């Protein structure tokens, strides 16, 4: 098969791509989405001889009929089939195809990056607060907690502004 290529490095790459984006994946089998990502990231798909459609067709050929994934052995078979298209007149085509993948890890090109500044800084700047919200922070910007709220509810059991609050025990005969 691919004697000149480090097959342990290939197996590690297979596992890395197999678990990409799936928290429940074990790394023993790979979905079609991850297979296509591996072929694209490792430049097996060149857009001329091997396309995304070719990759999908080969995946469907090598997987078991009722399965949704391929194993490492099936991946090797699929790559051998793609290498015949990618390097048609080259005897070392299989080795070159395996070498494209060996030692590679999935890329995160185009992934969303966290914003370091902007709206969050503006929204958490307590010096710009107005109205009742301004009273909830001290001069350093630290929150005052309950003390920062002027209208605190009193749980005395009496209606607000009741003139005789706290006189119940005096009226009750003992």
TrEMBL record:
Disordered: annotated segments: 124-152
Name this polypeptide is given: Tubulin polymerization-promoting protein family member 3-like isoform X1
One Gene Ontology biological process: positive regulation of protein polymerization
Source organism: Branchiostoma floridae
UniProt record similarity statement: Belongs to the TPPP family.
Pfam families cross-referenced by the UniProt entry: p25-alpha
Gene Ontology MF terms in the entry: tubulin binding
Record's compositionally biased regions (Basic and acidic residues): 132-152
InterPro entries in alphabetical order: EF-hand-dom_pair (IPR011992), TPP/p25 (IPR008907)
């Amino acid at each position: 098969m691919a004697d000149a290529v480090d097959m342990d490095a290939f197996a590690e790459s297979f596992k890395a791509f197999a678990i990409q984006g799936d928290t429940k994946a074990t790394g023993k089998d790979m979905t079609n989405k991850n297979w296509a990502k591996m072929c694209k990231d490792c430049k097996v798909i060149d857009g001329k001889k091997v396309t995304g459609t070719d990759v999908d067709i080969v995946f469907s050929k090598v997987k078991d009929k009722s399965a949704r994934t391929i194993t490492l052995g099936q991946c090797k078979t699929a790559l051998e089939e793609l290498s015949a298209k990618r390097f048609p007149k080259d005897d070392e085509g299989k080795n070159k195809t395996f070498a494209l993948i060996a030692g590679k890890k999935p890329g995160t090109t185009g992934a969303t990056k966290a914003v370091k500044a902007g709206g969050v800084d503006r929204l958490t700047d307590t010096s710009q607060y107005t109205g009742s919200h301004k009273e909830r922070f001290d001069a350093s910007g630290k929150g005052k907690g309950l003390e920062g709220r002027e209208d605190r509810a009193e749980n005395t059991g009496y209606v607000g502004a009741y003139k005789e609050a706290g006189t119940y025990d005096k009226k009750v005969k003992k």
